[in-house]
Amino acid sequence: MKFLTFDYGNQTYYGVKVKREESAWILPKLFEDFGSDAGYPKTLLEGISTYNTLDFQEIVRKLVEKADQSGNPDQYKAPFTDIEFLAPVTPPNNVIAFGRNYKKHAEELDNEVESLYVFTKAATSLVGDEAVIPDHRDVTSALDYEGELGVVIGKRADRIESSMALDYIYGYTIINDITARDLQKKHFLPFLSKSLKGGCPMGPFIVTKDELPNPEQTSIVTKVNEEIRQDGSTSEMVLKLDELIAEVSKYVVLEPGDIIATGTPGGVGAGMTPPQFLKKGDEVRISINGIGTLTTYIGE
Predict the structure, then answer these.
(1) C-alpha span between 141 and 135 (Å, rounded)
(2) Is the pTM of this model over 0.85?
(3) DSSP 133-146
(4) 179: pLDDT confidence band, cut at 50, 70 and 90?
(5) Which three-class secondary structure state does DSSP give residue 220?
(6) Which position among 99, 141, 175, 292 has the lowest Cβ density within 10 Å, counted as fewest Cβ atoms?
C-alpha cells in the first residue's frame, strides 16, 4: 500500500493510494463511516504506532472495499490534482540521516567512507511532494540536492541486533536531503546546513515494505531541470539497511514513524566541475523504482 498525508478542502487528512488511481482514499472518512472503533487513528503516525503493519493494512483494505461498494465511492476520494501533498509522517525524533554511505558520493566530496557520519534534520524542515522551497540566498550560495531512500520505522527499536532489524521496518519513502554546502563546511556540525526551511522534502508516499521487496536493489535517479545528475542504486550502500537500523538503535531509541535517510549516490551539485548548485526556478525530481517520484521546486 501507498500511504500519504495531504491537505484537501481546508483540512489535513491521511489516506491511501490503491492500484493506479490518481487519488487518495480519505481514511478518516472511511473509519467514520465504515469502521467499528470510535478511537480510530486520526493521523498516519497514529496508525503506524497503534497497529502492526499487516494488521493496519488489512483494516485499511477492508475499509476501502466497503467504501468502494457503497454506491458513491467518489465522496471518499481526494483527486491528486486537488490536494497539497505533505510529508507523509512527522517522526517523533528528528529525521536521522547517514552521510558517506555511498563510496562515489564520499569520494566526490573528498570524504572518508570508513568513518560513521550520522546527523539529524529538524522535523520542521519537512515538506511534501511538489513543494516550493526557498533558495535561502540570504544564508547560502551553495544549495545542493541529495536523493535518498528513506526507511520508516514500524515499531520501537532499542539496541536491537542487525539480524532482527528488518522486522522493524514499516515501509520506505523518498527524501531530498537539501544541504547548504558552504554552511556544511563552515560549521563544525551539519545540523544547521541540513535543516533549513523546506530542507527535507519527503514523499510522495510511504510504501509498505511488502510493495518494495528488494529495497537494496532499487534505482535512485535525480534530475535537475530534466538533466540526470544522479543515477545510482541502493545496492551501492556501504552499510546496509539492517546495519543502519541496528547501529542507530545502539544510541537512540527509535519509535514508530521515525525516519532514517540512508545516504545518497554520487552526482551531487558540489561534486561537479564546476559545481552546479540549485537556484531559483530549478526543479528537482528524485525517482526511486517501486516508490515513485518526489518533485521539489526552488523559489525565493
Answers:
(1) 9
(2) yes
(3) E---TTT-S-EE--
(4) very high
(5) strand
(6) 141
The one-letter amino acid code at 38 reads A
Any idea how long the chain is? 300
Question: In angstroms, rounded to a whole number, what is the distance separating the alpha carbons of residues 138 and 278?
Answer: 14
d(Cα 100, Cα 119) in Å, to the nearest integer?
11
Q: Which positions ≥6 away from 177 have C-beta within 8 Å?
A: 97, 121, 145, 146, 148, 194, 199, 200, 261, 264
180: cell is: 547548504
Query: Residue 137 burial (CB < 10 Å; 0-12/13-18/19+)?
Result: exposed
Report strand pairing: 200-208 vs 126-127: parallel
Contact in structure between 206 and 57 (CB atoms under 8 Å): no
Q: What residues have CB less than 8 Å from 118, skipping those under 6 apart?
A: 96, 97, 98, 99, 248
Output 186-191 pairs: Cβ under 8 A, ≥24 positions apart. 189/119, 190/99, 190/119, 191/119, 191/120, 191/121, 191/122
- Give the three cell numbers for residue 182: 558552504
Query: Please, what are the domains in the chain?
Result: 2-85 (no CATH), 87-298 (3.90.850.10)
- Tens digits of residue pLDDT in 48-71: 998 877 789 999 999 999 999 999
Interior/surface letters 113-132, b for 16+ CB within 10 angstroms, e for the rest: eeeeebbbbbbebbbbbbbe
* 8-state DSSP, 19: T
pLDDT digits (tens, 9 = 90+) for 258-286: 999 999 999 999 999 999 999 999 999 99
